[in-house]
Amino acid sequence: MNIQKIYEKMLNGEEVEFSVAESNEDRQKWAKCEKNLLCRLSFEGHNGTVLLRSASSSTPFCFTGPSVKLKTFSPEGFIDLTVSPKTQVLIHHNNEIAGEIREMEFKMNNGTSQLFIYEISGGGIEDKYMGLQLESYDSIFWKKEYPYEGETIDAQFSFRLGDQCVTVDLSREIDLDSSVYREILDKILVLVEMISFCKSAKAELMTERALSGENINYSRYIKPQSQDIGFANLICPMRNDTDMWFDFLHCVMQQENVTYQWLIDSGLFQAIGNLYFYNINEWMLIKLAAALEGLCKTPEVDLFEGKEELKKYKSARDKAIEAIKRQGEQKDISEYVIKQLIKNIHDNKRQLIGYPTKWYVEMTLCECNIKGYLDQHLRSITDAINMRNTIVHTGWAKEWKTGLMEHIKILRNTIFLIVLARLEYPGEFYFSGDEHKQPTCLREWQF
Question: What is the distance between the alpha carbons of residues 418 and 438, in angstroms, rounded to a whole number?
Answer without folding.
Answer: 20
